[in-house]
Design a protein that fits this description.
The complex is a heterodimer. By secondary structure, chain A is mainly α. Chain A is built from 13 helices and no strands. Helix content of chain A is 76%, strand content 0%. Classes of the chains: A mainly alpha, B alpha+beta.
Amino acid sequence: MVKSQQTLNQRLLRYGLYAILGVAALVYLMPLWVMLLTSLKDVEEIRSGTLFSLPGSLNFDAWAKAWSGACTGSTCEGIAPFFGNSFKIVIPAVAISTLIGALNGYVLSMWRFRGSELLFGAMLVGCFIPFQVILLPMARMLAMLGLANTVTGLVAVHITYGIAFTTLFFRNFYVGLPKELIAAARLDGAGFFFIFRRIVLPLSTPIIVVCVIWQFTQIWNDFLFGVVFSGGDTQPVTVALNNLVNTSFGGKEYNVDMAAALMAALPTLVVYVLAGKYFVRGLTAGAVKG
Amino acid sequence: MANLTIDNVVKTYGQTEVLKGINIAINKGEFLILVGPSGCGKSTLMNSIAGLEDVTGGRILIGDADVTRAAPKDRDIAMVFQSYARYPNMSVRENIAFGLEIRKVPKPEREQEVQRVASLLQIEHLLDRKPGQLSGGQRQRVAMGRALARRPKLYLFDEPLSNLDAKLRVEMRTEIKKLHQRLGTTIVYVTHDQIEAMTLADRIAVMRAGELLQLGTPQEIYDNPANQFVAGFMGSPAMNFVPCRLAAGDNGLGVEILDGNGNPTWLPVPHPERLSGVAGQEVVLGIRPEMITDPVPHKADQPLVRQVPMKVLVTEPTGADTMLVTEINGVEINCRINPGYSTPVGETVPLMFDMSKAVFFDPKNEARIDRG
C-alpha cells in the first residue's frame, strides 16, 4: 500500500516536472514562433489578424526584401552586405582569440612559473569588466593606431575582450590533462611548440568546440562594440538590423523586421545545432576531472 | 665506472627541505631501487635526475658529464611513468617512434627500431592500435617500449607497476627483471612496494623524509638494517621489535624475556662484544618472523638457538606457512610456523628462537647499536 502510494507520488512529481519543463520550453519558443509567423505574412494580414493567426499563404517576399532590398539607414541593400561584414569580423576574431587562449592556457597550466597563478587570476578579472567601461579608452586607442571604423579594429577589440574567456576555458581544460604527458615529451626531446602542436592540441577538440561556440555567439551577437567602433560600411549585421528596424518610410513593415531578425540569428543557431552536444560535454569536462 | 652519480643533492621548496643531501653512485648495468614511504622524496629525486625539477644544491653526473643544469632532453635518459606516459592521440607505433622522430632519426631506421622494441616486448600485433584500446598490462608494455626505443644511457621507472592489479604486477615484475638481465641497462626505479624492491634491485636505497637511510644490496638491507625504520620497512610480515633489557647470562650477554608461562627466560645475542657498552640497559630486539619457528631438531644444538614456551594468541594460515601471533614483554610478535605443527589457540607451545640474525636498536632514537 505504502509502496504504490510512493510510486503514485513519484509519478505525479514526474508529470509535474514535465509540465514545468513544457511551460518553460513554450515560453522560450513562443517569440520565435510569432516571429516566424509574422515574417511569412504580408502587411495587410498583420494589421487585420492577431499575433498567433496563421498566414494565408507561405509568402517569402518579406525575407527577400530583408535580405537585399530593405533600407538600413541611408542605403537600401538589405542586410546581405552586413552579413558579410559580420563574417569578416567573427571568423578572424574567433580563430585568433581561440588560438591565443589555447597558448595561454597551455602555459598557465603546464609551464607554471613564479606568479603564474596570480597572472591567471588577473586575467580572470577581464571576464568581469563590463563592455561600457572600455568604450572610451578603446576608441582613443583605435584612433591612435589608425584602426578607427575599420573591420581590423573591431576584430582587435573582440580578440582582446575574448582572451580572458578563452584563456579560462583552455587553462581549466589543460589542468585536467596528466602532467606526465608533458614530462614524457620533454624527456623525448620535444620543445615548447612541438609539444603544443603534436600532443596538446590534438587532445583539445572538446574545449576548442566550446571556445568556438562561445566566442562565435558572443561576437556575432555583439551590438555595442559594433555600433561604437564600426563605420557606415563596416557595420556588423546586428547594427544593420537595428538600423533596418528603426528606418521607416511610411508604414512599419513588421514582416521584414522579423525576417531580418531571424536571418541575423540563424548562424549562431546553426553553430549550436551542429556542435551543441560538445558544448555541454566540454563545459563540464574540466569540472569533473579531479 | 659510475654511470650515475648523485653528489650531495639538496632540494628545498621555500623553507621545506625535501632532499637533505643525497649521495648515491651506481655502476653501469646496475638496477637501483629508490624505496620509502610516500613523501620521502624518492619521486623528487627521480625527477631531479630526469631534469624535470631543478635541484637547489649538489651535482648530478651521468657518465662523466655534469648534467645538474642540463635540460631533460640533453641528459640521454628515458623514463617510464606510473600512468599516462602514452600519447592518447597517437597509435602505439607512433608512440614508440615519437622520441626518435623528435631526434630526427630517418624513417626506415625508426621503423626498424619500433619493430625491435615491439618484438622485445611482444606487442607487434598492437602497433596500429591507440593506447585507449589496450589493457593495463599492454599499456605498461607500450610505456616501456617508448623508453626502450632510444637506447639511452639511463632508464628511470617511476612506480611503473602500481596501477596494475596484483597478478599482472607480479608478471610484469618478472618481465622487467628479465629485460634488465637481457639488455644490461642501467635502471633507477622508484617504488613504495618493498617486495618489488627486494625482488628487482641490485641495490636498494631506502629513503625517509628526504634522507637516504641506507644504500645496499637487498640482502644487506634485509639482514643488516641501518636502523629500526629500515628494518621495519623491508620484509613482510615486518620484523618484530621487542623491548627488553640486556643482561649477563650463563655464557655472556643476552636479553631477558618472559615466556608464555610468565617465567623469565634468557636469549643469547649474536655479537655480545658489540653490545658490551650498553649492558644492563633497555634495548629493542629486532627478530624476523621466520627466525621464530616450531622446534626443528637439526637446529636444536646450535649455540644461538633456544626453545621457549609461548602462548598462542592468533594463527593465520597462509598455506605455505602459518603465521602465529604471540606476545613477548607486552608486544605482539609474528612467528612463521610449519602448518603441520599443532598450535591450538590459547595453549602454550614450545617455539624455537634462532637469535643468529637478531639485531638491536636504541629505544630512544631507533639507531642500530650492534652494527659491525
